[in-house]
Amino acid sequence: MVVSLRPTPVSDWKFKKEWNDFYSTGDLYATKKQEIYRRQWEIKTDSHNYPYLDYIKTLAPGWRPLQYLADFMEVGTDPLRWRDFNNSDKNHRYTYPDDFVGREEKRSERVSHSRVCLLDYEENEVEPHVTYFERPIDLRSKLLEINGDEKDHVPESGLKLFVVEDLSRDTIDLLGHHLRIEPDFFRSHLREHAWFNIRDPFWVPPSLHMDVASRNWHQVFFCRARYFTDLAKFREAQRAVDNFNIKRKLDEDESKALWDRSYPTSKPMFPQLHTSFFRRRKKRNEIPERNSHGNHKNISGEQGIPLNDIQMTNAQQELIEEEVDAKVGLMRTKATFWWKNKNIGVLLLDPTLTGGFPLWREQENWHEKPIPGEVGPRTPDPEFSFAERFIYWAENPASFLRKASLSNDPRQLPMMILLRTICADWITMSQYIKTRLSQVDWELIHPREFLGHHRFYTILNKLHTWRRLVPVYREMLYTTTLHMEFFLNSEGKPSDNVEDEPFMEYLNEFMLILRQMDEYEQRIDRLTAVTTSTINMVDSHRIKLLTGLATIFLPLSLIGTLFSMSENVDKLGVTFGYWAAASVSVMCFLLVVYRLSESWLA
């Protein structure tokens, strides 16, 4: 149907009022205003027994970026989400409930929630013992045990890797204090940003590469895409991101294509009904009836037959299509890892949204396929979060042991699992960008079918979105490869031995995706040039039509002017007849000349 080809809005983007309130607690230069708010959320570290927080607050005057970490720990989440607990900010943008008791409960929940898993690798073992810590007191007991072994000079063997999903005050304080972790490690994971505004209070000064190379912690950046069936579910997921303690953002890709919406199948489900009307929602509970000519009486269904009056099986009921207006959300994320003497590590991972679906539904299964007659291993749940996926493959490392022989470094196996999981997400993201650009190609080739009447500006809007995002992804990949190289060289090995490490295979994979991003940038530039040229051609065609119309009416105006020179009112009827005969004749002659010249030029 022609209606189904009607173009849809490319994006639901709009400026949000709360963006102007980014500095409600004070910008980077409003020191006095910031101090007023800090007195509101300040906690007494002596009475609450937070030694690591007290340590950070003593460092903050000399190292200003650490002040944001101290504020995060005291507020319990991103400090910009702070809500005045004196009820002076009715229905503001913050994530705490409106009532005072609910705010305190929510704040306590954010502060103390713990999502920590310990992967305990024994010496020369590849499958770890997995322990989950749902309460801070349990995590404290384990950390005290580890510190006790260090004080008793128990020989270190194997690897103890703490996997942390999201961050909280208690988790930061316990891990930072007992493991003596550098505060910048936690500070770097709190926010994800592509750039800073000049007033942002969470600004972080850039680091020299030589300083990054000397750290005992590094970061890997990546992007995850998530599919939603409609705009309402996408907006709900955007609100759910506020439940994370760390600051992340779910962005719409601002790209829409014909295939993102639900359309009827090519064959009717029932012989007496036309298929195109089945894409209406079930809640209408009606279908149009046919007239004597076999056509539908009314598209809107005022004279329709209730579906309940038609005998349908359960299977036929399920075949009635629901309307889908798909949205894809993109979230920039990161994994931050810290090591201590190769035997103790902390891995910080971002939480995963529960709404929607992973793009293209599920990740690749890396288990070796069983031969006929054998029972394969348990497959990973497609609904797993990113942290659960990592832990699952850590418990099932056989697929990674086939790739390369492991060295004496116990960190190698979990790092290989992490890099492979992240690389899979990057490959999915690369395929998605390729899909969107290929759809733009189709829209340029067949604009009538996919865009409607010369809606080329929608293509330009899509290309501008990817022209902005792809360089950001390229920078994330480049930074990731740098951190990987720093990690490979952190042990002081000669450079010729580094290539023997299996990490180089993953580094090459990241470099391949980086080259793909370079190709996408060039492709976007080419498509933008073609689209701009097409728009100019369409505009030129419109100007040509206007010029033709103006040319046609020029002699009519001239003849009308000549006939208006007659002052004899009695003969006005005769004059009008002469005017009509002459004008119509001249106009028809000019139209014929215009058509002939147009066909000759074509």
From TrEMBL:
GO terms for molecular function: metal ion transmembrane transporter activity. It is a multi-pass membrane protein. Residues 285-304 are annotated as: Disordered. GO terms for cellular component: membrane. Keywords: Membrane, Transmembrane, Transmembrane helix. InterPro entries: CorA_TM1_TM2 (IPR045863), MgTranspt_CorA/ZnTranspt_ZntB (IPR002523). SUPFAM superfamilies: Magnesium transport protein CorA, transmembrane region. The chain crosses the membrane at residues 545-564, 576-596. It is found in: Membrane. This is Uncharacterized protein.
